[in-house]
Design a protein that fits this description.
single chain; alpha+beta; 5-stranded antiparallel beta sheet; 13 strands; 19% helix; globular; antiviral defense; CRISPR-assoc_prot_Cas6; CRISPR-associated endoribonuclease Cas6
Length: 272
């Protein structure tokens, strides 16, 4: 589930590309003091992510912008929504907004047989641990993880992405249900790389790292209910690492869903 938050700009401002840490602070303000407060220190994927403020671009007073917050456990969104209603100021660095409206959304890739395209709304972080580089035929010295780049080929990207989603499945889904790597078939049918880019990210107060991220379009066809759950988990929790900083946020491309009919023809399915 996710929240679509409509914002109104309170002042002119330049769009700040280094938004991750400050936007996380505003989103997490609602969790502080709640029963989810200890997630701050969790050393595991927590199943919570958020988009950037969109559309991108410099801001004029009165402009309308949006941001989405998504979680595998919809109960986490309760205190976040409550705080946004009670405290309407939504300030991210020099970008000052007020909250106008909050809407709950339930994105769904569709029933088995449905085809569609998922886009990464924010950059995806995938790192290759040093002990796996030999498996992928990557020459590497040292103990530091490698940021995935196109020259490393798709195999490590797919494997690390699926392993990461396995962890989220372990924490966010019932134990008896199979995770992504327990089932045959890949998570996505098509992997279209849009771009890679490096961006400085303040990962915690006063600590900045430069991450190498990538943006993608992923084609999919829902094989069965398990595959549907895995894809919807990716939509809710994000893919790759550091989702709690707003990385790996996904959207279903508008108008891309096609539902298979009994005659074998495809029909356009409604967007969620």
């Amino acid at each position: 589930m996710r929240l679509l938050i409509k914002l109104r700009a309170e002042a002119d401002a330049a769009y700040q590309n280094a938004w991750h840490h400050k936007l996380r602070g505003r989103v997490w303000q609602g969790i502080d003091g709640s029963k989810y407060d200890d997630l701050h220190d969790a050393d595991r994927p927590i199943g919570l992510t958020f988009s950037n403020i969109f559309p991108w671009g410099d801001i004029e007073e009165g402009d309308r912008r949006h941001v989405m917050v998504s979680a595998a456990d919809p109960d986490i969104l309760g205190p976040i929504a409550g705080d946004l209603i009670e405290n309407r100021d939504f300030n991210v660095g020099e970008m000052a907004f007020s909250v106008e409206e909050i809407t709950g959304l339930h994105p769904d890739v569709g029933e088995p047989g449905t085809r569609g395209t998922i886009e990464s709304g924010t950059g995806v972080l995938v790192r290759i641990p040093p002990w796996r580089t030999d498996d992928y035929g990557i020459e590497h010295e040292g103990d530091e993880a490698l940021y995935w780049r196109p020259e490393h080929t798709l195999e490590p990207f797919k494997t690390q992405l699926e392993n990461n989603l396995d962890q989220k499945h372990d924490y966010c889904c019932p134990e008896h249900l199979p995770g992504p790597s327990d089932r045959e078939g890949e998570l996505f049918d098509e992997y279209e790389l849009i771009k890679t880019f490096a961006v400085p990210v303040e990962v915690t107060q006063g600590v900045e790292l430069t991450y190498v991220l990538s943006k993608w379009r992923f084609g999919y066809r829902v094989r069965d209910d398990h595959h549907r759950r895995h894809l919807n988990l990716a939509l809710d929790a994000g893919i790759g690492e550091r989702n709690a900083l707003g990385l790996g946020f996904l959207n279903i491309q508008e108008g891309s869903k096609e539902r298979a009919t009994a005659s074998g023809q495809a029909s356009v399915a409604g967007d969620d």
